[in-house]
């Protein structure tokens, strides 16, 4: 029997507010344990939460960017469950009245674009964090993360492969980062994903029994966990056995999922409206104000780069992967209006150095104006392409400008025909056998002669003139 995979994702994105969702404690990552807490986020008796307005506006931005309909009235609810890192014994979330519903995003697949539906986007507070002691069987609780604002983005079960799930996650992260409301860091837990996956007979419209996957902290691990689960469930179904509805953890070391607990349903959490928080009323004027502040989003920017700069789709996709990278590209093009050349240098020389140092573009030591200056020097034949690459490496390492490096090291390209002619004649005189072989038909030796001239001029001779003058001397 052939089976079809059905995947839906629940994504939690930590919002980049300075303070928590219901109190004024800091949201800064990496502080000593239990130093960013107060009676409100610790759930002490008698305290009252107060909603952070910025959280609502950030959530509205994501809802609008993903084509959701913003409800005029949303309400917070208590989601009741016990866990050591949940001090109140419940989480403040949203249930029957979320902020946004009925949205969608487009993802790129091998078969082209696919639209993935978004069921809802709602606001909630984060729980704390358990730190497990490797030396003894105890765990410690850090409540710093308790009350940090999240939005949960719940997709429709529209994905049909682990690859599509990974593409959907990347699309969401790109949008969040463009909006500058979440840093998208999966390793630090500010962008997290739970996956629901089931298999059904191909052609069936019903759904199979789903399992929920947790503990996936990278796009690669999400895809690997889903691929393993597809194999596990298919093997069970082919043997006539039932898939158990449960929550499973991904073990990246062993490359397997393991059972954690039975899967909870909504009624298990005993949701009810939070009596300490009034419903949030959102009028059209507020929605319009937030909409007017939205930046150009990844898909729109990608299409504009193709249209405005005549770039290939691949280049546009790479350059718009982050808002900062796209801004960097446009800043260079403003000073050096040759988009394809700029694209090539960013995607090769610049991104190679950034990847090696694990740096983001915003930390790049080569400013857009300095890169434009380097390309101008190369375009005017002041330096050769080979020297330009060497100059770029020094620019990256020192932060100095191209012009300063070229002048300090005397790297200006030699375009004086008399000087080049003298070197050409010297090279030919030193290699009479090769000259004779060339004239007998071994024209591939031209590269050898070019190399010798460039070596004698320390790479500074104009390559075009070198080729022209060598051919003239060899065939003359």
Automatic annotation (TrEMBL):
<dbReference type="InterPro" id="IPR014746">
    <property type="entry name" value="Gln_synth/guanido_kin_cat_dom"/>
</dbReference>
<keyword id="KW-0547">Nucleotide-binding</keyword>
<dbReference type="InterPro" id="IPR017959">
    <property type="entry name" value="Asn/Gln-tRNA_amidoTrfase_suB/E"/>
</dbReference>
<protein>
    <recommendedName>
        <fullName>Aspartyl/glutamyl-tRNA(Asn/Gln) amidotransferase subunit B</fullName>
        <ecNumber>6.3.5.-</ecNumber>
    </recommendedName>
</protein>
<dbReference type="Pfam" id="PF02934">
    <property type="entry name" value="GatB_N"/>
</dbReference>
<keyword id="KW-0436">Ligase</keyword>
<dbReference type="GO" id="GO:0050567">
    <property type="term" value="F:glutaminyl-tRNA synthase (glutamine-hydrolyzing) activity"/>
</dbReference>
<dbReference type="GO" id="GO:0016740">
    <property type="term" value="F:transferase activity"/>
</dbReference>
<comment type="similarity">
    <text>Belongs to the GatB/GatE family. GatB subfamily.</text>
</comment>
<keyword id="KW-0067">ATP-binding</keyword>
<keyword id="KW-0808">Transferase</keyword>
<dbReference type="GO" id="GO:0005524">
    <property type="term" value="F:ATP binding"/>
</dbReference>
<dbReference type="GO" id="GO:0070681">
    <property type="term" value="P:glutaminyl-tRNAGln biosynthesis via transamidation"/>
</dbReference>
<dbReference type="InterPro" id="IPR004413">
    <property type="entry name" value="GatB"/>
</dbReference>
<feature type="domain" description="Asn/Gln amidotransferase">
    <location>
        <begin position="327"/>
        <end position="474"/>
    </location>
</feature>
<dbReference type="InterPro" id="IPR006075">
    <property type="entry name" value="Asn/Gln-tRNA_Trfase_suB/E_cat"/>
</dbReference>
<comment type="subunit">
    <text>Heterotrimer of A, B and C subunits.</text>
</comment>
<dbReference type="InterPro" id="IPR017958">
    <property type="entry name" value="Gln-tRNA_amidoTrfase_suB_CS"/>
</dbReference>
<dbReference type="GO" id="GO:0050566">
    <property type="term" value="F:asparaginyl-tRNA synthase (glutamine-hydrolyzing) activity"/>
</dbReference>
<dbReference type="InterPro" id="IPR003789">
    <property type="entry name" value="Asn/Gln_tRNA_amidoTrase-B-like"/>
</dbReference>
<dbReference type="Pfam" id="PF02637">
    <property type="entry name" value="GatB_Yqey"/>
</dbReference>
<dbReference type="GO" id="GO:0006412">
    <property type="term" value="P:translation"/>
</dbReference>
<dbReference type="InterPro" id="IPR023168">
    <property type="entry name" value="GatB_Yqey_C_2"/>
</dbReference>
<comment type="function">
    <text>Allows the formation of correctly charged Asn-tRNA(Asn) or Gln-tRNA(Gln) through the transamidation of misacylated Asp-tRNA(Asn) or Glu-tRNA(Gln) in organisms which lack either or both of asparaginyl-tRNA or glutaminyl-tRNA synthetases. The reaction takes place in the presence of glutamine and ATP through an activated phospho-Asp-tRNA(Asn) or phospho-Glu-tRNA(Gln).</text>
</comment>
<dbReference type="InterPro" id="IPR018027">
    <property type="entry name" value="Asn/Gln_amidotransferase"/>
</dbReference>
<keyword id="KW-0648">Protein biosynthesis</keyword>
<dbReference type="InterPro" id="IPR042114">
    <property type="entry name" value="GatB_C_1"/>
</dbReference>
């Amino acid at each position: 029997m052939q089976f079809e995979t059905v995947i839906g994702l629940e994504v939690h994105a930590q919002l980049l507010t300075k303070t928590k969702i219901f109190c004024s404690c800091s949201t800064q990552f990496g502080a000593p344990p239990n130093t960013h807490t107060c009676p409100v986020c610790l759930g002490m008796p008698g305290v009252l939460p107060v909603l952070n307005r910025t959280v609502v506006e950030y959530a509205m931005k994501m809802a609008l960017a993903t084509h959701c309909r913003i409800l005029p009235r949303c309400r917070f609810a208590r989601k009741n469950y016990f866990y050591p890192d949940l001090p109140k014994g419940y989480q403040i979330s949203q249930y029957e009245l979320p902020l946004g519903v009925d949205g969608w995003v487009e993802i790129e697949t091998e078969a082209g674009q696919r639209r993935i539906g978004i069921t809802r986007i709602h606001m909630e507070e984060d729980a704390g964090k358990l730190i497990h002691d490797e030396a003894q069987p105890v765990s410690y609780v850090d409540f710093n993360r308790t009350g940090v604002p999240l939005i949960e983005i719940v997709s429709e079960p529209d994905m049909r492969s682990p690859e599509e799930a990974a593409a959907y996650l990347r699309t969401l992260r790109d949008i969040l980062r463009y909006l500058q409301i979440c840093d998208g860091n999966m390793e630090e837990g500010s962008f997290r994903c739970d996956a629901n996956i089931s298999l059904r007979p191909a052609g069936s419209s019903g759904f199979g029994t789903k399992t929920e996957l947790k503990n996936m902290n990278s796009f690669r691990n999400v895809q690997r966990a889903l691929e393993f689960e597809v194999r596990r469930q298919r093997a069970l179904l082919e043997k006539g056995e039932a898939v158990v509805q449960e929550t499973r953890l991904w073990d990246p070391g062993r490359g397997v999922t393991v059972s954690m607990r039975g899967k909870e349903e909504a009624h298990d959490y005993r949701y009810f409206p939070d009596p300490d928080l009034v419903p949030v009323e959102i009028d059209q004027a507020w929605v319009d104000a937030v909409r007017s502040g939205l930046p150009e989003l990844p898909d729109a920017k990608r299409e504009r780069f193709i249209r405005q700069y005549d770039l290939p789709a691949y280049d546009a996709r790479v350059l718009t992967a982050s808002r900062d990278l796209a801004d960097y590209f446009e800043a260079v093009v403003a000073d050096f209006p040759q988009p394809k050349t700029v694209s090539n240098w960013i995607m090769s020389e610049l991104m190679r150095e950034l990847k090696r140092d694990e740096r983001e573009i915003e930390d790049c030591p080569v400013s857009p104006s300095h890169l434009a200056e380097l390309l101008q020097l190369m375009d005017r034949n002041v330096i050769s392409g080979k020297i330009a690459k060497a100059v770029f490496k020094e620019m990256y390492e020192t932060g100095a400008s191209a012009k300063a490096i070229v002048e300090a090291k005397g790297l200006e390209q030699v375009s004086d025909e008399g000087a080049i002619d003298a070197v050409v004649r010297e090279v030919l005189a030193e290699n009479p056998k090769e000259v004779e072989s060339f004239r007998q038909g071994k024209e591939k030796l031209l590269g050898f002669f070019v190399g010798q001239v460039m070596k004698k001029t320390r790479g500074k001779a104009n390559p075009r003139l070198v080729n022209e003058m060598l051919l003239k001397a060899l065939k003359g």
